[in-house]
Structure formats: structure tokens, C-alpha cells
Amino acid sequence: MSAEYLEVASLEQVPVGHSRVVWVSGKEIALFNVGGEVYATDDRCLHQKWSLSASKLVGKIVACTAHNWKYDVTTGEMIYGKGMKLNSYPVKVVEGKIFVAIEKSALG
User: Fold this and answer.
1) Superfamily for the 3-103 domain
2) In what order do the strands lie in the sheet with 37-42?
3) Confidence of residue 13 (pLDDT cuts 50, 70, 90)
């Protein structure tokens, strides 16, 4: 399958150390700015579907505000979760604009 990069936000909307939710093809995707590098994962915690973009980001770890489930936003992997992982999406930043790659089949 091939992916298409879609513009979702500007870099100034996601400052270093912060996150933001965007909607892409009906999906809530969380953008995280870790040291100037932007990463994208599904926005909802695997446990009870709380928003991760509204949760606290410390370095590259986001901790869900509901029950403190922690994820590495650079990989989507749950900390201490043995194989539990959020969907992650490729990101590129071009001239201050953030683009996220979504599979064409998901675009409908």
C-alpha cells in the first residue's frame, strides 16, 4: 500500500515539548514535538481511550491522564507493555508545515 502525506498543522501550532490533536481521514491523530522533531500516533490510549494529546508529555514519554499508562511517542510503544503499541504515522516538516502520511486506503 502506498501512503499520501497530508498537511495537518503548522510547526508553530506544536511547540517543542507540546502536543496537539488533528483529524485526518476521520482519525484522531496526536502530534508530539520532541526536541524539535514531530511524531504522530493515534490519539487515544489503548486502555480506556483517553486523549493522549491532552496528557502530559515529558521528553519522549506521554502519560495518559486517566491511569498513567505511558507511551514512547517516537515509536508508539507502551512503556512496560510488552508488545502493546499505538499506531504511528510517518511525519515530515516542510517550510514550517507538518505533513502526516496516511495509507491511501484509509482516505476513502
Assistant:
1) Rieske [2Fe-2S] iron-sulphur domain (2.102.10.10)
2) 19-24, 27-34, 37-42, 88-89
3) very high
Please check whether residue 107 is in contact with residue 3, taking contact to mean a CB–CB distance below 8 angstroms: no
- Whether pLDDT at 8 is above 50: yes
The residue extents of the domains of the chain are 3-103
**φ, ψ at 73 (rounded to 5°):** -70, -15
Tens of pLDDT, residue by residue over 39-66, are 999 999 998 888 999 998 999 999 999 8
Question: Which has the closest alpha carbon to 94: 2, 6, 4, 3?
Answer: 6
- 72, 70, 108, 103: which is closest to 89 by C-alpha? 103
The answer to pTM > 0.85 is yes
Q: Grid cell 517543542 — which residue?
A: 16
Indicate the pLDDT class of residue 71, thresholds 50, 70 and 90. very high
